[in-house]
Amino acid sequence: MIDFVSKLNERYSEFTHSQKMVAGYLMDHPDVAAFCSLQELSERIGVSTTTVIRFARILDYSGYSEMQKDFQNNIQNKAALPERLESSGGEIPANQLLTKSFALDIRNIQETLSAQNEHDLETAVNFISSSNKIYILGMRSSYAMAHYLASRIGEIKDNVRLVQSTGMIYPEEIADATKGDVCIAYLFPRYSRSAASAIAWMRKEGVKVILITSLNYSAVKTYGDIILPCAISSVTYKNSFAATLCLSNYLAAAVADSDRGRARRVLTRVESILNQGCYLGL
User: Fold this and answer.
1) φ, ψ at 215 (rounded to 5°)
2) Distance CA 157, CA 68 (A)
């Protein structure tokens, strides 16, 4: 698997658009790729079998079978995050790590921008703007993104609720979610069972779900009414959220722009509280 990641970084600029789709899927779903037939994998990604074979050969495998064995060997030997640490970063010289990290995040941002559908973005903003209550959800690493967006949208919109699970009050904190509400959910590999359960329950109750997830979202597409895909490739053992942060910034800005009068009213109330002594005034 270390060889696969290294070859991927070296050859990425040579890939066609379809081959980049294959690369993204394999990085996000290595466990799936280890056991899918060539036909099954191509159908999941939405490309031809020929594209997958050509992709494997660009990486110097004799064909799909040899590449798949690489994934299978990785699964047999992995124990999650420690092995991801071993397979990332170490092959990059220390004096190049900063440049490669920034370059990869820039590419993530560019790919995420290219992956957006204008109609889906507009619909997502309309959902948020017209909702009664807004639930923002993310587990483990994704919680940082959820907290960030909740703080931004909470400054310009009423009834914004960050699903925290603090003090084990989940699922009580989403129990009143109902039709007319919206949930903005961050769900990335490795997918959180708790997050998926919460999202599925809210959808059943009529809540509109805006799902922010990875570029290849076939495994979780049924969880969202609107899918906003993000590139999350990283030089380290955890996903990069640089592009996810950019998309979150856009959503906050677009919601504010959709009703500036309301945003100003909420901001004025927030500022009146802050002026009572939140800052030192220096």
Assistant:
1) -60, -40
2) 48
